[in-house]
Design a protein that fits this description.
The protein is of the alpha/beta class. The protein has 10 helices and 11 strands. It has a domain of 155 residues: HUPs (Rossmann fold), CATH 3.40.50. Helix content is 43%, strand content 23%. It has an 11-stranded mixed sheet with strand order 8-7-6-9-10-5-4-1-2-3-11, with helices on both faces. Helix 4 crosses helix 5.
Length: 321
């Protein structure tokens, strides 16, 4: 499962253009890899009842609930139709419960998803203004990789960027990126960033300026790491390019490099326990997710199989198999 997060793909849908982008990405992957796809839409009944119970009067709560539930069922039907149009068989469910992110995570556990795919409404990733949104909460709580798809992102990834460091999470990201590149005949771009002041990085990379030799020493380790991974990828038949960069804003360097080489997907590891924890806000991984205009596949060090954590009882109102 680690090396192929796309074997079982759970896609969160709500009928929006961003969710439709997530559906398109998942369907494209499945057409090549034969992935199992499941769509989930969350009927936040409790929140709706609370909203309808405000003292404004004249609201038929029962009729409103029925209408919203029917809308969620139609959203699932639409996603299934999109999958069928792409030649992909899929299943879908409407979960009737509380918080949308909690229900998505519960469905991922019960279905043993290898990856959760979710769209974001932000123009450039998850904007600061919507922290605490469903997408951010799903990232924070997931124990499996999460693919964030901006609404304008391409569903076809011909060039994949992978941010590399020494962490187990980055290794998982590399393995998944390499596997995807091989399956889809995509280019693989490995990116290593040296945390160094911009002025020193620019002088060294542009002019080779390094009077004491200390800058070259700092660059040596990521270069060796990327060289080793590139050799591994090439030995398996991948088309791979290495990029070692320096800068004080590591996330910006990763995103700008990916954009420079027209990469359609960025794979990256996070180091927060349980996904992007609150302590990780502002981290490199989250900085990439916030600002990248392309899809981002995030792994983390605490990744475990879903079987380790028992799934809560499913609260699905309807399911299509």
């Amino acid at each position: 499962m680690d090396n192929d997060p796309f074997a079982r793909i759970l896609v969160a849908v709500d009928g929006s253009s961003t969710a439709n982008a997530a559906v398109a990405a998942a369907v494209h992957i499945a057409t090549v890899q034969g992935s199992a796809i499941r769509f989930v839409s969350v009927f936040e009944r409790a929140k709706l009842i609370a909203a309808c119970s405000e003292p404004y009067g004249g609201i038929d709560v029962g009729a409103t609930l029925d209408a919203v539930e029917a809308t969620h069922a139609a959203v699932i039907d639409g996603a299934l139709a999109a999958a069928a149009a792409g030649g992909v068989r899929a299943t879908g469910t409407v979960r009737d419960g509380g918080d949308a992110a909690d229900e998505i995570l519960a469905e991922a556990r019960s279905w043993q998803a290898g990856c959760i795919v979710i769209g974001t409404h932000a123009r450039h990733g998850i904007a600061r203004a919507v922290l605490g949104s469903c997408a951010e909460a799903t990232l924070r709580g997931s124990t499996c990789p999460v693919l964030i798809v901006p609404h304008a992102a391409s569903a076809v990834w011909r060039r994949v960027a992978c941010a590399v460091d020494d962490s187990p999470a980055a290794r998982r990201a590399f393995s998944a990126a390499l596997d995807y590149a091989l399956r889809h005949d995509a280019e693989l771009h490995l990116i290593g960033v040296v945390p160094i002041e911009d002025a020193y990085a620019a002088a060294y990379e542009r002019d080779g300026f390094d009077p004491s030799g200390s800058v070259a020493t700092i660059y040596a380790h990521p270069r060796a790491l990327l060289k080793r991974l590139a050799e591994e990828a090439a030995a398996r038949g991948a088309r791979v390019t290495q990029h070692v960069l320096g800068g004080s804003d590591i996330a910006e360097r990763i995103v700008s490099c990916a954009e420079r080489y027209a990469c359609n997907l960025i794979a990256i590891g996070t180091h927060g326990r349980g996904g992007l924890t609150r302590a990780m806000l502002g981290s490199v991984a989250e900085g990439v997710i916030r600002t990248a205009p392309v899809a981002v596949l995030a792994f983390h060090d605490a990744h475990t199989e879903h079987a380790v954590e028992p799934a809560p009882a499913a609260a699905a109102r309807s399911s299509t198999s």
